[in-house]
Each structure stands twice: as structure tokens, then as C-alpha cells.
Amino acid sequence: MSWDVVIGIGLVGGVGALARFGLDGAVSSVLGRDFPFGTLLVNVLGAFVLGLLAGLSVQGDRYRLLGTGLIGSFTTFSTWMLESHRLEEDGQPGFGAVNLLISLLAGLGVAWAGQRVGLAL
């Protein structure tokens, strides 16, 4: 892998992280912070885009830049886990379990749908 790609991953990774921060903040300002809807939306969108990239057969440096750099930094496994754990700590174990389950099922579903869309294009 060339240094251009490494630097590119860092740059588009910054864009993905800022996009996640902005979208999560916008969703939370509308729906509140009682449930992590922003993180849910970010991760579901990211799963769809990764499925789409797979369906379009994006590979090599393009995939490293888009899949790893941009979408990898846009989505967030660690925040999803932390927010689910905090819901349980705050006395809402049902919401924590719902967050885990909905994120997992929706993510798998939209990744599959994204791949199908990519294959159809």
C-alpha cells in the first residue's frame, strides 16, 4: 500500500468522523438522548454503504479509502456498545437490549439490501 493511500485513508477518515459527529448531534437534537438514535442511524447507514460497495465490487485502494477510511470512521462499534451498556447502567436494561438487537438486525438487513442494490447497478 502506498503512502498516498495511507494519507488518503487518514483524510477521508477525518471526514467520516466529522460526518458521524454531525449526524449524531443533529438526530439527538431532534429526538433527544434518552435512546441513541443517532448512533443507530449512523451504523445502519454505514452498513448499507458497505453492502453497496461490496455489491458494486469496489476493491483495492478504492475500497481502502471508501470502506475502511470513510465508512470505517463514520460507523462506530465502540460507541454502540458503550451506549447500550450505559442504558443498562441507567436502569433501562430493556432499552440496552433493544439497542443491541435493533442495531444488529437492521445492520445485517441493510448491508444485504445495499449489496443487492450494488449488484443491480
How many helices? The count is 5
What is the beta-strand fraction? Answer: under 5%
Distance between the termini: 29 Å
Number of strands: 0
Write down the Rg: 16 Å
Helix content: over 70%
- Average pLDDT level: 97
User: Mind summarizing the main beta sheet?
Assistant: none
Q: Give the helices and strands as they follow along the chain.
A: HHHHH
**Poorly predicted ranges:** none
Which class of secondary structure composition applies to the elements? mainly alpha
Broad shape: globular
Walk me through what this model shows.
By secondary structure, the chain is an all-alpha fold. 86% of the residues lie in helices and 0% in strands. Helix 1 (3-31) crosses helix 2 (37-55), helix 2 runs parallel beside helix 5 and helix 4 (77-89) runs antiparallel to helix 5 (93-120). 30% of the residues are buried.
Summed up, what is this model?
With 121 residues, this protein is an all-alpha fold.
State the main characteristics.
mainly alpha; globular; 121 residues
Write the layout of secondary structure elements.
Elements: H1 3-31, H2 37-55, H3 60-74, H4 77-89, H5 93-120
Helix pairs in contact: 1-2, 1-3, 2-3, 2-5, 4-5
